[in-house]
Structure formats: structure tokens, C-alpha cells
Description:
The chain is globular and about 70 Å long. It is of the alpha/beta class. It folds into three domains: 34-164, 3-Layer(aba) Sandwich (Rossmann fold); 193-353, Alpha-Beta Barrel (TIM Barrel); 368-481, no CATH class. 36% of the residues lie in helices and 16% in strands. The strands form four sheets. It has a seven-stranded mixed sheet. The protein has a six-stranded mixed sheet with strand order 2-1-3-4-5-6, with helices on both faces.
Amino acid sequence: MASLPAAITYAESQSLPRVTPRPAPLDLKEPGAILLLSCYELGHQPLNLAFPLAYLRRAGYRPVAVDAAVAPPDDAAIAAARLVAISVPMHTALRLGVELAARVRRRNPDALLCFYGLYAWLNAEYLLREWADFVIGGEYEAPLLALIQALERGDPGPVPGVSDRVHRAGPSLARIDFPEPDRSDLPPPRHYAHLVMDGRIVPAGYTETTRGCHHTCLHCPIVPLYRGRFFAIPRQVVLADIRRQVRQGARHITFGDPDFLNGPTHSLRICQALHEEFPEVTFDFTTRIEHILRHRELFPEFRRLGCVFVVSAVESVSDLVLEKIDKGHRKADIVEALRVLDEAGIAMRPSLLPFTPWTTLEDYLELLDFIEEQGLIEHVDPVHFSIRLLVPPGSALLDRPDAAEWIGPLDEASFTYTWTHPDPRVDRLQQQVATLVEQATREGWSSHTTFAAVRALACEAAGVAIPAEPPRRGHRPPPPRLTESWFC
């Protein structure tokens, strides 16, 4: 290196303009040069691998895709990769994804590392500082392809929709030209969640009819990215994806849209076409209480077409808590939604958010009473009794005027802001319930045994008498369920 002129001091040299060297072009069309990794997608075959696989292969690339939840990538695949892209659509996936990133860095330190998906963009600052070269959020396929093409050209960026260590990009919200998801390299449905119903167990497939969400619940991690927008996936693409999974052995389909009834006509037509082609295939979907009430006339038809249960984010029966997170329903609406589904012959599987900064011990006991009174003990996955509010970076809750009253510092490595309940008994109960349901799940306790044990902990925390164990069966029959619990 040539020495600096004597008239320029070292300190002065540090303030001189710097030119970022142009990166060397990469050959990314070789098989395995691009490695796509999934860590966790709720026990289903990862659609967040199948879509980018199809998108990149359509453009002439030959990526390798590995679902690490079924079989971790081998060292040879990691060593051969020049770009490793890790899918992180939820909190659990990101925690596992960082562990996988550490392995990639140890085995192949020269590989470029990209995180893509909902929780990538929310945690971009931390990921880019500690692990990632690139982060993509929102509709990620087009920015991922643009990044790959830029790396091939040796273009230093910025790439639209892609954040790197120099440039920050917002989430990509441009509608893409959806390809049929490519599941050819993924493990077949028998490796994933199964439907349990009427004494039989069948493999369950998974697809989506929309992305994003029309609604803006304050605690939802989708809101900071999509802000009330959603995109419909073309009907022919969804049906082709279902057809492929049925050929692979799926006999039940989970529609995993954040809310299946954001576009009710679109959803209904897909279900009608599914039933016409595969009348023996059942399905489930997720929708909000508000939509069950607004579209109540559709549910008998959904049942006729094969719907066996609906997941709905009940969250709480405290009207105060529901108001704080802007959930769009009240306790009375939950009761009415249950009636609508009962009359249609469809089970509800509630998802819960029982621990928030506003939840009291009395609220928690009221929630347990509600579950017993409504005959829902067997409808609730035990993990839901323990779920504590997560507040990721960018959460809409942070914009509320009262946020400063309860929010704590950001724990970047845990991907959430901390908070402490004003009643220490509530935080202590949450920890006890989390430990208990983990044990119950591991040891295979029945729903009623788990419920009674959770209630005993709650009554002890509140200093009230423990009621007698509830009856073994509520007024609803045991509902269909998936072998993998639903949570984020």
C-alpha cells in the first residue's frame, strides 16, 4: 500500500472520503449456490420455501431447500452455498434461525447470509449488526431475486426492498406474479402435522389464499409491515398447490392466512373448487370473531364443503384487555361466535393471549371459568394457557399514548421489548403455567388434567379456593385437532 503524503496526518486520513470496493460478481446459477433454509413453520411443510423455490427456479436458478425442522442441513450443503437465505415468519422461527446462522458462520464464513420474512424485517437492526448481510420483509420473492441478480453483477446496491449493513429498506409491498409453489424437494406431508378426527389420523397439508391482513390489531406483528393491506393469491395457484399436496398424501388442508375471510368470496370459491375435486379432503382456517359474526351465513356452506374446525384469536375475555389490543370484539361476541359455529357443526379452536400488562389474576380465573362453562377444555391447546404478550421492534403497541407506562427496554437477542406486570403474582403465575404445560405436553396429560392443574396454580396465586375438578366432557364433543399446537 502506498504511504500517505507526509502533510496528511493519520487523524486527517481517517476523515477522507472512502470508496466502498465493488464486490466481486458471484456465480449463483450453480446447483446449491443458493441455500434456502426453514427452521419452523408450525409443523407444516414450509410454504416459505416452496414459493421462493418456484420463483427462483422460474428465473433459471437451482437453489437447494432444506427444512431444518425435519432434517438439519448437512455440512456439505452449507459449505457449497454462496448465499444462505433463512426463512423467519414467526418468533420461534427467528430464535431457531439465529442458531442456524451461527452454524452457517462457523462452517462457511464466506457465505452471504440473508434473513427473510415477517420477523426478519422487525428485527433488522439486530440481525444486520450481529448475523445477517441482508434482510428482506413483506413480499420477499421479488427482492430476493433482485438481490441475487445484483450479487451476480457485483453491484454493491442498494437493492429495492433489501436492507443491508449500509442501506435500510422498508418492507416490500408490491404484488408479485405468484408461481405455483414448488414442493418437489421438500419432505412429504407424512413428516408434518396430522389431523386427528373421529378416531383417524391423516396427513395435513398447508397453503394460503392471501398474504397480509386487512385488520390492524395492535399486538399483531403483521401490522407494522402490511398496515392493513393484503394480497390475494390467484385461485388457480392455490388449487394447484392443494392438488400437489393431495398427490403427496395430504387428506386435510390448513388454510394458514392471517385471516381467511379478509376476502370471503375468494376464500369460498377456493373451498368450493377444492370440494368439487377432492370431496373427501377436509380443511380448517383462521378467522377473527368479528368475521364469524359478519359472515355467519357462510359457515353452513363451509361445513358442507369440508370445514371441520376454525381457529379464532379469542385472546382474552377481559373487555379491557381486548380494548387495549384493539381486537375488534368483546366477551359477548365470543359467546355469539361459538353459537354460530355450533349451529353450523364446526368446532372452534381458540387461540389465547392470557398474560398481558393489563391482565389481572381475576381476569385469568374468569378466562378459565369461561373455558369450562363453554365446554372448551378440549378445544384449547395447553400452550395457550401460558402465552405472554410479545412486543417486537416496530410493534403498533409502542405507538399508543400509554405505552411508556408499561413498556421496558428492548431485549434485542430475545426479539421483544420487556415488560413487567405491576402485580408480581401475575408474572410468577405465567412462569409456573409455562413450566406446567411443558411438562403436561411432554408426558401426555389429558386436556382435563392439564386444565385442572393450571386452575389450581391460578387459584393458589389469587388466594381463592380450588373448585372441584370439572366434568370430563363439556356440552361439545371432542373437536378435531392437529398434532402440532398453533402458536407463534
